[in-house]
Structures are given as structure tokens and as C-alpha cells.
Amino acid sequence: MTADAGRPGNRRLLLQLVWDVAAPIVLFYVLRGLGVSAFAALLAGAVLPVVTTGMYWLRDRRLEPMAAFMAGVMLLGLLVSLISGGTRFMLARDGWVTAAAGLCFLGSVWARRPLAYLGARPLLEGRFRSDGTPWETLWTSEPAFRRIWRISTAIWGVALLADAVARVAMSYTLPVAVVPGLGGLLWPVTMVLLQLVNGVYYRLAGLWRLTAGEGRREGVAAPAARG
Where do the structural domains in the chain lie, given as residue ranges? Predict the structure, then answer.
């Protein structure tokens, strides 16, 4: 895989994630300004990212593994919202959904491929400190590589559960009008902290040395250079 392969798709995924977070918040405050009830405004925000993801799927007939995971999480959030019927529970929807996502990450730690690996591979494989060796080759041949991604997945799971606790606490203790905005601000805080913690862990654990071809087990070599 070349350094530029797949980047437009990855940029689209990033933009979609930003849209999924920001658009429901903006829609909530717009609808509230028009006199719509808090519950209806929150419900509209819950529907919006599900509709957007459905449109992408209808157009491409496929989703990347992480996009599919996020779509499932959003659909779960919408179903929870429809069942609950309460404004406070609706405010806490992101917390319950984030908790479900955290549990999914923890549950995938010993799966065939953990979620952190599936999410990072399309973004990083062959693009950063890489000698061209496919990640699947490293996964098969390098126990350290597998261990790094399983621990990273556990880090994601614990962080998402902590984020969920904060969201549920805010939803039941703070004024309704401020919770969507604060919840939106919490996303970048959580993501930045996750990236920092994981970045430090990847360096200390030697992930980039492995992808660059340093310190591998005997017999694991990079693909031959192309002429």
C-alpha cells in the first residue's frame, strides 16, 4: 500500500465523524430556538447521523470496519432514545452509547482482530514509519505487534467507559440547555487524551520500530522493493 492510498476515504470518514458530533448539537439549539421541545430536538439529533450513515451505505454499498462499528453504535443510541421517552435519559443517550462502545472495545481485546487494530489499520498502514510490510504479516508473525494492539484496545475501552460515566453524570445533574454543548466539547477532550496516551504507549512499546522493520523476530522481512 502506498502512502497516499485510500486517503480521500479516510478524510471522508473523519469529516463524517465530525458531522455526526457537531450537526446534532447545532440542530438541537436551532430547534430549541424555534420552540421545539427538548425531547423532540434531541430525538432529531439522534436521527441525523443514522440517516447520514445510511446514505453513505446506499451510495457505496460498504462501510469500513470502524465506520460500520460507529453506525451500529449510533443505531443503538437511536433505539434507546425511542424506547426511553424521557428528556434526561435522552440527554444521557451519548453516555449509554459510549458505554456500549467501551464494552465492545473491551470485548474485542481477545477477538481475532481487536477494534483498535481495525480502526487504525486503514489510517496508518504503510504511511508512518513503515518499511512496506503489511500489518497482517506483522500480526501473524509478531507476538509483540499483537500484544500492542490488544493493550491499545483495552485503553480505548477504559477511556470510553470513563467518558460515558462523565456524560451520564452531566445529563442528570446539569441544566438541560447546557448538556448537549458540554457533551460535544467532551468528545475532542476524550479523543485528544486518547491519542496522547496511545501515542506514548505505541512509542514505549516499540510499535513504530516493528513497522519500520527494527527488532523483529528472525525471518520476518519486508517485501522486496519494486523496480
Answer: 7-211
